[in-house]
Amino acid sequence: SAVISQKPSRDICQRGTSLTIQCQVDSQVTMMFWYRQQPGQSLTLIATANQGSEATYESGFVIDKFPISRPNLTFSTLTVSNMSPEDSSIYLCSAAGTEKSSYEQYFGPGTRLTVT
Amino acid sequence: AQSVAQPEDQVNVAEGNPLTVKCTYSVSGNPYLFWYVQYPNRGLQFLLKYITGDNLVKGSYGFEAEFNKSQTSFHLKKPSALVSDSALYFCAVITYNQGGKLIFGQGTELSVKP
Hints:
heterodimer; A: 116 residues; mainly beta; 4-stranded antiparallel sheet; B: 114 residues; 6-stranded mixed sheet; 12 strands
């Protein structure tokens, strides 16, 4: 399995500011994704992070609000821009397409964001 | 549209009893099905998957799941529940014509009482 780390693990931010979340995978992966999860609820896919090109966003999510980078096969960042309290959530990074398996997605521990 | 349903928000079982967490799916094409578990304040952990082959798949921590194509179901089971199994469980499906994106069910809170 792939081991995924995220930084920061949690943060409290003021409205109007931006936060960049980093996701590091311990091996090269084909696909990386960013999800949002309200505590105790299901996950909503924000976007697919594409290596060397623009991310593919799901309906309701836009690049200006959630810019994503993926400079190589092991690293991605998600920025939450111009934050409002509605952005308070857990943000999870996932990766799929390792040497051993094409199918399982492995998840990072999440970043708990609180916007005041 | 592709979707996954977990009809029970919460399942309560006594320790030592068998448990079942239900999942049904609706996809076009062949589904790849997964179960994940999330413990409080933790990320999602992969439990098991069905890709092809034997309809009964075994996974981590003694869990298993049965793929039933006619009923479009993939219920998670364990013969004897432990208190430590208490967590939030998610069923998910991938169809690879959708770029490998996971579609999650809404989650089922499993509570195992001593």
